[in-house]
Amino acid sequence: MVAMISALSAASNAVTPVSGNNYTIQNLAYGHFLDDLGYSSEDNNPVVAWSQNSPETDNQIWTYLTYPTTGDPVFTLQTLIATDNETSYDGRGGYLRTDTNNMIVQTGAPQAWLLQTVSPSIYKFVPHDPYLNINQTMVITDVTNGSTISPPANQLQLTPYTGDTTQHWTFNTPP
């Protein structure tokens, strides 16, 4: 029942992202938010699925940045904590990326993602790089089973797409 309430809430507050704007990004299954773990400016810092911070914090707010293209939007996400601490990042960094183990991290180099619509204002995030994503079947997934036990257990992963709501995300405008 909790997952159903979270999904309905996430979908009702969802917006269509616009390049350059800031958003919280929420998982449809559990209501978890993309979170740059511990507000870290270190490359390869885990991005986890976590409960919404109250009050909201910059490690859960992401800037949506698009690349010029045709077809599905190609984008990257940059954590707001990176732009708040530009000296730590040498004026760059905080981008959503996949590491060599298919874990989701933030790092200095942006990674291009495809934004694919599942239904209005509900999306899946697919790596644009064909070497990471043969036949566009891999997507970012909340693998927590609904709990926020510990940060390592809550790290987002790239997994094959099954259509499950753990792989569906919404963009929400921060208050």
Features of this protein?
175 residues; 2 helices
Indicate the topology.
Blueprint: H1 2-12, E1 22-27, E2 33-36, E3 45-50, E4 62-67, E5 74-79, H2 80-84, E6 95-98, E7 104-107, E8 113-119, E9 122-127, E10 138-141, E11 157-160, E12 169-172
Antiparallel strand pairs: 1-4, 1-12, 2-3, 3-7, 4-5, 5-8, 6-7, 8-9, 10-11
Percent in helix: under 10%
- Quote the beta fraction: 25-35%
Uncertain runs:
1-5
Number of helices: 2
Q: How would you describe this structure to a colleague?
A:
By secondary structure, the chain is mainly beta. The chain is built from 2 helices and 12 strands; from the N terminus they run αβββββαβββββββ. The strands form 3 sheets. Strands 9-8-5-4-1-12 form a 6-stranded antiparallel sheet. A 4-stranded antiparallel sheet has the order 2-3-7-6, with no helix packed on it. The protein has a two-stranded antiparallel sheet with strand order 10-11.
